Amino acid sequence: MIRSLFTAATGMQAQSLSVDVISNNLANVNTVGFKRSRADFQDLLYQTLRDPGAPSAEGVQIPSGIQVGLGVKPVAVQKIFSQGDFISTGNQLDLVIEGDGFFQITQPDGTIAYTRAGAFKLDKDGRIVNSDGYPLEPAISIPTDAISITVGSDGKVTVLQAASTTPTEIGTIETARFINPAGLRSIGKNLFTVTDSSGEATTGTPGTEGRGTINQGFLENSNVNVVEELAGLIIAQRAFDLNSRAVQASDEMLQTVSALRR
User: Fold this and answer.
1) What share of the chain is helix, strand, coil (3-state, %, to 5)?
2) Distances, alpha carbon 105 to alpha carbons 47, 58, 196, 206, in Å
3) Which helix (H) or strand (E) holds 98?
4) Contact criterion met (CB below 8 Å) for 84 and 220
5) Is 106 in the same domain as 197?
6) What is the extent of the structural domain holding 63?
7) Is the pTM of this model over 0.90?
8) Strand 168-172 relative to strand 86-88: parallel, antiparallel, unpaired?
9) Rounded CA gap, 183 and 171, in Å?
10) Would you say the C-alpha torsion 224, 228, 229, 232 has a positive or negative sign?
11) Share of the chain above pLDDT 70, in %
12) Do 32 and 115 fall within a single domain?
């Protein structure tokens, strides 16, 4: 009965984490470029009271034995990098990657972070930056007399200037790929950083070597499926309730034992 108390407690802790993950997914249902997370769990150690295959008599073996599980533990909260829905905005600096890849962003400390959020803007120097003012990498500056900006599917950026009738190419947006994007570290602000698990970024021209192409005038919405998350929330809530009932049942059994009289 003491064992069942701790086993059920691990179940309550696990379902609490599951609700935390689902809550974060739902909170970011309208966050551009957000990727949903999923909590993964494993069963804990088993206490073996009787080994499977142990002899019960000469020439006779026990077919299954007795093993009692000790609960559950969380082992990972994994990012799911499936494609989100595209939203047409018509904004010249709203970009989306159709397929695999990440935009590169230079952080204030000079390190590179990666994002799927393509809601870019211009700063006072004409540089293309994200919503926090961090510049795109490689840096691209728009001339002050530019009257239109065009971004090709291969990342080439051209502008039409007031005194010209011919578009001028001013740079190319490069995207990055990872062998294991689920291993990236989320640091908030729609940004990810490299870890040993993700592997190093391989950068290049969009549309080459498995990289997705760029579409201008679109944004990638969150890939959170509200119906799926709410169903998961109900399951986690019911599982938490069932584990709490197991705790109550174990407590009542202990209470009965402690009330025994000779």
Assistant:
1) 25, 35, 40
2) 50, 71, 19, 16
3) strand 95-98
4) yes
5) yes
6) 2-81+224-258
7) no
8) unpaired
9) 30
10) negative
11) 98
12) no
Please tell me whether residues 143 and 198 are part of one structural domain.
yes
207 lies in the same domain as 113: yes
Question: Whole-angstrom Cα distance, residue 82 to residue 79?
Answer: 9
Q: What distance in Å separates the CA atoms of residue 186 and residue 182, rounded to the nearest whole number? A: 10
| pLDDT (tens digit per residue) in 230-244 | 999 999 999 999 999
CB of 19 within 8 A of CB of 8?
A: no
pLDDT higher than 70, residue 147: yes
Rounded to an integer, what distance in angstroms lies between the CA atom of residue 79 and that of residue 38?
Answer: 7
Helix 2-27 × helix 226-258 angle, to 10°: 160
Rg over alpha carbons for the chain, rounded to the nearest Å, is 27
Q: Based on the fold, state whether residues 67 and 180 are members of the same structural domain.
A: no
Same domain for 95 and 72: no
How far is residue 114's CA from residue 189's CA, in Å, rounded to a whole number?
10
Residues 109 and 56 in one domain: no
What pLDDT digit, counting tens, does each position of 115-126 carry? 999 999 999 999
What is the model's pLDDT at position 262?
Answer: 56
Work out how many domains the chain is built from and give that number.
Answer: 2
Please compute the mean of the pLDDT values over residues 212-226 and round it to a whole number: 96
Q: Are residues 199 and 127 in the same domain?
A: yes
Chain position carrying tokens 């009932």: 245
pLDDT tens-digit map of 156-170: 999 998 888 899 999
Place of tokens 């809601």: 119
